[in-house]
Amino acid sequence: PVKGMDAIPKQLALNFTMAGGRIKMNTTVTEIDKCSISDGTDIYVLTTYNYASGQNAWYYAKKVVLGLTKSQIQRIHWRALETAKQRDLLESVFSRAASKLVLAFDNPWWRQESLLYLNLTKGRTVSTLPTRQTFYFMSPNPDITNRSFALLYNDGSHANSWSSLASSHFKPFLGSSPSVFPVTETLVQEALRQIAVNHNVAKDIIGHPYFGYFMMWNHEFTPTNVPGYGPYMPSESWHVWLPGYNFTEVSEAVMQLDSDWDVYICGEAYSLQQGWTEGALQTADRVLARFFDISPFVHHTDEGKL
Question: Which of 96, 146, 190, 215 has its CA 20 to 30 A from that of 236?
Answer without folding.
Answer: 190
